[in-house]
Design brief:
Helices cover 61% and strands 0% of the residues. The chain has 119 residues and is mainly alpha-helical. α4 crosses α6 (96-110) and α5 (79-91) runs antiparallel to α6.
Length: 119
């Protein structure tokens, strides 16, 4: 997970590092410095409204609690765990929009592959 992906995570999901210097091969490969990445990360974080960030934090917290209760890791999100989580929430009567939001937040915050809806 590079610094740009970290910027997309809710604050509660961001790992802490002992050092602030990173030599991310993805960044150096394209000629970016950690300063460039930090500026891009700040722009990405600013692109979301406060309401969106609060919603993501709530949804992410629900996912983290569900994972902790079952002893599975939230990041990276295992596709089978995401499927089980969404199925459990659907069986509990959650609306399709709520499930879509959960899928979006988990995907964006954990680097998971996109959720796919069957036709």
């Amino acid at each position: 997970m590079n610094i740009l992906m970290l910027a997309a995570l809710p604050a509660t999901a961001r790992p802490t590092f002992a050092s602030t210097t990173t030599d991310d091969p993805d960044l150096t490969r394209v000629g970016l410095t950690s300063v460039d990445a930090a500026r891009i990360g700040e722009a990405l974080a600013a692109a979301r409204t406060d309401g969106t960030r609060r919603l993501y934090n709530v949804v992410w917290g629900q996912w983290q609690r569900w994972c902790a209760e079952r002893g599975v890791t939230a990041v990276p999100a295992d596709p089978l765990a995401v499927c089980a989580y969404l199925t459990e929430r659907a069986e509990a009567g959650r609306a399709t929009g709520t499930l879509d939001m959960a899928c979006t937040v988990i995907r964006r915050c954990s680097g998971s592959p996109p959720c796919r809806r069957s036709s």
